[in-house]
Amino acid sequence: MTSGPYGSQGTPAEANPPVCPRHTDRISYVRCQRCERPTCPECQRPAAVGILCVSCVAEQAAHSREAKTVFGAQVRQGRPIVTLSIIAITLAVFLLQFIPGIDITDRLLYAPALTLVEPWRLLTVSLVHSTGFILHVGLNMYGLWLFGQYLEPALGRWRFLILYLVSAIGGSVGVMALADPNVAGSWYQPVVGASGAIFGLFGAMFVIQRRLGGPVRQILVLIAINAVIGFVVPGIAWQAHLGGLITGALAAAVLAYAPRKNRTAFQIGGIAAVFLLLGAAIAAKTALVPVTAPLILGL
Fold it and tell me: Does residue 125 lie in a domain region?
């Protein structure tokens, strides 16, 4: 068969075969179901019916409404990254507490007398735990995992992280607010642990459940049991539990009951107000401390 305007089977050869717009060197007879342009295998994306090109998929994603939870968080799949990160950091610090010469416990613990001179301890106290009672860190991290895997997806990563941090600070403020500056065993008493932050998650869970219309009896029982333990078992800073519980509930109320319109701005302003309340509590308490009172804790 002689060569000419026919293929090997005698059919007319295409003068301009369809090519992929993104890869013009590739012939493709498969077309996008949306724009009907030729699409090579590399640019094909499976759709509900047929194939879409990458350009149409990107355009649809840009115009589609992002799925959000009722609290304004992006709907995510997979593990609670923030929760796992906090647990990993806390356990790493706990291991460092056993290394002699570092004195990381003394560097991160909190005492009311240190509030003004080293205010970061209001937060860092949540990273250190009792080395003589391993269940201290174990139970706190279990509580974080238990509530974190529910609250983090519901609130979103950043909202959950802020909730945890403000609850931790609220726990320390609770210790300071209920301490007596005139009693050394109260004002200079060091405390350690993430219990304030965990109780903040307890309070947040209660608020979130109420907001969603879910059952709250179990969380109330859990709060009550842990509250009783805090008063009965010696050496437990129940003041941190109370401060964290109240702070977490307040922060969660701001996040959960923010109006849909301007929700993010309302949530940011509300959380800022919670921080201001904590700052006001610190200012009010420290104003009562005599200027001549020593503010260095002997460790």
Answer: yes
CA distance 59 to 57: 5
Element (H, E) at 254: helix 238-256
**How many CA within 13 A on the CB side of residue 125?**
34
What is the total count of domains within the chain?
Answer: 2
Phi first, then psi: give them for residue 12, nearest 5 degrees: -65, 135
* Token pair in block for residue 159: 């909202």
Q: Domain range holding 42?
A: 23-61
Tens of each residue's pLDDT in the chain, 299 residues: 444 444 444 444 456 788 888 888 888 778 887 787 888 888 888 776 567 888 888 877 666 556 777 788 787 778 899 999 999 999 999 999 999 888 999 999 999 999 999 999 999 999 999 998 899 999 999 999 999 999 999 999 999 999 999 999 999 999 999 998 888 788 999 999 999 999 999 999 999 999 988 888 888 998 898 888 877 777 788 999 999 999 999 999 999 999 988 999 999 999 999 999 999 999 999 887 764 444 444 44
